[in-house]
């Protein structure tokens, strides 16, 4: 797994080693976007789905798949 960038509404105030983008700021193409927040997952998913064709999943979904040994 390679983390290409983070997405955060407060990107202008963050300084990270990995690039941080504001939603809607022309997100570079990736295979999957992982929502790491437990709250408002569906709101975030809806917002991001209008901005990218990448698969969008939550950390909760990822952990469930890993637990079940799925891909």
- Helical stretch tally: 2
Rounded average pLDDT: 89
SSE run: EEEHEH
Secondary structure class reads alpha/beta
Radius of gyration computed on alpha carbons: 13 Å
- What are the segments in which pLDDT stays under 50 over at least 5 consecutive residues? none
Helical proportion, percent range: 25-40%
Shape verdict: globular
Number of strands: 4
If strands are numbered along the chain, what order do they take across the biggest sheet? 1-2
What portion of the residues fall into strands of 2 or more residues? 15-25%
Q: For the report, how would you describe the main beta sheet?
A: 2 strands, parallel
- For this structure, the quaternary state is single chain
Give the N-terminus to C-terminus distance in angstroms: 13 Å
Structural summary, described in words:
With 71 residues, this protein is α/β, with parallel strands linked by helices. The protein has helices at 41-49, 59-68, and strands spanning 6-7, 20-21, 32-35, 55-58. The strands form two sheets. Strands 1-2 form a two-stranded parallel sheet. It has a two-stranded parallel sheet with strand order 3-4. β3, α1 (41-49) and β4 form a beta-alpha-beta unit. It is globular and about 40 Å long. The two termini are 13 Å apart.
């Amino acid at each position: 797994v390679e983390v290409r960038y983070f997405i955060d509404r407060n990107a202008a105030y963050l300084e990270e080693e990995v690039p941080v983008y504001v939603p809607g700021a022309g997100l570079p193409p990736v295979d999957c976007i992982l929502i790491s927040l437990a709250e408002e997952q569906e709101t975030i998913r809806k917002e991001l789905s209008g901005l990218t064709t990448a698969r969008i999943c939550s950390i909760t979904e990822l952990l469930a798949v890993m637990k079940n040994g799925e891909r």
